[in-house]
Amino acid sequence: MSYQRFALVYDELMEDVPYDHWLTHTINQVNIYNENAKTVADIGCGTGTIAIELAKKGYDVTAVDLSDDMLFIASEKAQEQSVSLSLYQQDMRELSDIGPFDVVTIFLDSLNYVTEKEEVIQTLQRVYDILTPGGLLLFDMHTTFKVKEVFENQSFSFAGDDISYIWTSVPSGKENGIYHDLDFFLLEEQSGLYERFSETHEQRAYEEEWMEEVLQEIGFSLVNKVGDFQADDHPGERVFYTVKK
After folding, report:
1. What does the pLDDT look like over 183-193, one tens digit per residue?
2. Which residues share a beta bridge with 200?
């Protein structure tokens, strides 16, 4: 899947995402479990919104994404806001030649895009290897509940002045797997006509018991787990893990 066109509309589509909740969660967890942390890697950073805000808080931030187009926009945004970021184009399954870091984040269900169990294990091992002793990994994932009860065989739509989309989710054939088929309609300013382009995103959710076993086998200690930002709201649609090396 190419993110070239998606990167151009990503921030507009995500404008209602409560990024401040992710930021508050991160700062809270770091203050509790690794208060002397200075270096952070944001893996699957997208257009850099969270990475930029963490840099503003004084952390030395490295932003990593698979998409050059996402990173280009992240770089532009960082420059506009006078923020320094180190940017790397890498696949999270093949992290190399970066780090070590006191904190690694993989947010906004980025890890759900790794759709083979062996590759999830590989990704988490690579993250473990680039963490300092006592370092933290913070990540969130769509739950199996969300895949089955919210996404599966459902359609969603959005109509804006400049962009509209139709989003349909269907089972991928893998256990707790889902395809998101998206049709975008983007207004061309000069012609006044809408251009259509399509993308398919594949994600997979994993049972929490399996995930916790994998984390333990790699060497992580689970220090906190919450659902949808609130411990009393779990199980829910999203689960947040804080694990320590």
Report:
1. 999 888 888 88
2. 181
